[in-house]
Amino acid sequence: MSVTRTEHDFLGELEIPAEALYGIHTARALENFQLAGRPVNQNLIKAYGWVKLACVQINRELGYFKDAVKADAIEQACRELAEGELNKWFVVDALQGGAGTSTNMNVNEVIANRALQIMGKALGDYVTVSPLDDINLHQSTNDTYPTALKLAAILQLRNVEQAVLQLQEAFQQKEKEMGDVVKIGRTQLQDAVLTTLGREMAAYAEAFNRDRWRIYKCEERLRVVNLGGTAIGSGLGAPRQFIFRVTDRLRELTNTSLARAENLMECTQNTDVFVEVSGILKACASNLFKVANDLRLLSSGPDGGLGEINLPSVQAGSSIMPGKINPVIPESVAQAAMQVVANDQLITQACMNGNLELNQFMPVVADSLLNSLQLLENASNAFRTKCITGITANAEKCRSQVLNSTTVITALLPKLGYEKCSEIAADVSSQNCSIRELVLRQKLMDEKTFEQLISPEAVNKLGY
Question: What is the pLDDT of residues 262-304, one digit of tens each?
């Protein structure tokens, strides 16, 4: 029994592994593109399954598939693709020339060969089911690829939104738990005024709340697609009814808000929406990085640093220093954020360098955008489950730092006035004692009044 089969295109013949569901176009791409060393993102492939299913259903309803058995087999193959059952056969490199043609042909060939399997036919029998004449009927890479990318991004954005929402809620829970822990607030890494750990956590929660809403709105930016526009958005080679109906069917199949672009040519050549969405993802990454870095500082020590909070211990921190625990989760989250920022720059460069009626760099846009979405989802989930939910306050350390810091003097302003507080600050320095000790010794106020002025209620008041 032969372990290969022979397929041909207008360039010649190639031997294909006998059991492979891909064909000669995919095999040529395997020879030509060995750049990233990883295949096309599986979420893009799954989305492509839905795109192809919408196309075959509309073509069938318009009378282009007379053979019901063949049409059923193609539909089943498309569904299996959309559900991730055929992922192993998608082998082309993530970075490829041709604006994604190799990905589209990998999809076409796998669907065709899987349909042949379902029908009990030999793989490669393209007279019966053709990757081009049947699976790619009334389509082009240039309308199916960006449509699949937008669909994949929308579906993934929903996961990212939920992950960020849950992260926000985790910080809100910490706000409640730590609302009564008074601590030193800092500006330029120097002691400033009193605040609470709860208020710090609330600020982080609000930042992620903004991210959540920005991410939610991204679907509006991606919902307009050029499916039916074929090569350059003119609809060349596609029936008018197919153009008008195929996006509606894709919307129904995927429960999304997809809509056909009014100007298909504009939607085919311009890719600025990917830059816009990537910028929103970058904003989320910047918040993740900032908060992760803050938590590293707040937990630093434990003896020689700020030590205001305790992060969960998840692994040993050193191969030479016994007992050392590092903030590895915030560090990993920060690195994911850096990658998202780098992806944003790459997406911007790729989108601005498209030419005339098409952007030839769609593969790197797809790879970078979907990578950013996966990174943000994973980082948000890991940050929440392995770090935020397990944070505890080091209340005694916070109290000690407050009482030994000159920041307390600002809390006494309403009671003592600016001039007196300035004298106290000078005296504390010369007498080597705390502000609390000096104020009580000079009987400027009693202990109860002092404690009230530095209480969580007083610190959290908006003004006095």
Answer: 999 999 999 999 999 999 999 999 999 999 999 999 999 888 8
Residues 6+ apart with CB under 8 A from 312: 329, 386, 387, 390, 391
Q: Which residues pair with 182 in a beta bridge?
A: 196
Backbone angles phi, psi at 208, to 5 degrees: -75, -25
CB–CB of 392/309 below 8 Å? Answer: yes
Q: Determine phi and psi for 83, rounding to 5 degrees.
A: -95, 5
- Give the residue extent of every domain in the chain: 4-137, 143-222+265-395, 406-460
Q: Does domain 406-460 have CATH number 1.10.40?
A: yes
Are the CB atoms for 2 and 61 separated by under 8 Å? no
Can you read off the two tokens belonging to residue 344? 């944003």
Clarify whether 318 is annotated catalytic. Answer: yes
What are the backbone dihedrals phi and psi of residue 20, each rounded to the nearest 5 degrees, phi first? -70, 135
pLDDT digits (tens, 9 = 90+) for 354-375: 999 999 999 999 999 999 999 9
Report which of 111, 112, 136, 146 is spatially closest to residue 126, judged by C-alpha positions: 112
The DSSP annotation for 100-112 comes to THHHHHHHHHHHH
Q: Which of these is catalytic: 234, 313, 318, 429?
A: 318
Residue 157 CA: distances (Å) to CA of 161, 184, 376 = 6, 37, 10
Which CATH fold topology does 4-137 show?
Answer: Fumarase C; Chain B, domain 1 (1.10.275)
Tokens of 135: 């699976």
Query: Domain 143-222+265-395 maps to which CATH number in 3.40.1160.10, 2.10.109.10, 1.10.510.10, 1.20.200.10?
Result: 1.20.200.10
